[in-house]
Every structure is written in structure tokens, then in C-alpha cells.
Amino acid sequence: MRQFRAAYDEAVANYRQTVRAAFQQVEDNPASLRVLDRVIGEQDEAVAAALNYRAQRMTASVQLVKSLGGGWDAARLPAPSDVSRVPAQP
Question: Largest Cα–Cα distance of the chain, in whole Å?
Fold first, then answer.
């Protein structure tokens, strides 16, 4: 009889541990979702800022060319095929 009682007590302990673990996961997962939502928001802001900085850099490059006396004339730009060609090695 003692053997059955020990098996029963062990089963109850295992069940309680399983239930505790499940409740812990139910508490932890929403917290993880909140943290990940915050991190994703921060990354989205960083990406938006990087795109803005790229635009500012391009504008500054154009201003530099203009300041040096150059201009932007589409007729003077090389054709896409000229840009993609690799020059022959001497």
C-alpha cells in the first residue's frame, strides 16, 4: 500500500510542477511580447532615421557638387551600360 501512496504522491507532485510551469509561461510570454514590441519599435525608428540620414547625405553631396561649380545635367550623365562595364585592365 505504501508503494501506491508513494506513486500517487509523486504523480501529484509532477502534476503541480507542470501546472506551475504552465502558469509561469503564461506570465512570462506576455512580458516577452511587450519587450519585443518595444525593441521592434526602436528598430523601426532607427531604420527611419537611417533613411532620413541617407537623404540628407545625398542632398549634401549635391550641394557640394554645386558649390564646386558643377551642375546636374542629365545629358552629361553616363549611360547605364557605360557604368556597368568594367574597364579593360592594361
Answer: 101
> Cell for 86?
568594367
Range of the domain at 61: 2-68
The Cα–Cα gap between 16 and 10 comes to 10
Evaluate whether residue 75 is within a structural domain: no
Q: If you search the block for the grid coordinates 526602436, which residue do you land on?
A: 42
Residues contacting 72, CB < 8 A, separation 6+: 62, 65
Q: Which of 21, 20, 40 minimizes the C-alpha distance to 32?
A: 40
| pTM, full prediction | 0.45
- Residues 62/72, Cβ–Cβ less than 8 Å: yes
Name the domain count of the chain: 1
Residue 88 covered by a domain: no
Would you say how long the chain is, in residues? 90
| Residue-wise pLDDT tens digits, 15-62 | 999 999 999 988 888 889 999 999 999 999 998 888 888 888 888 988
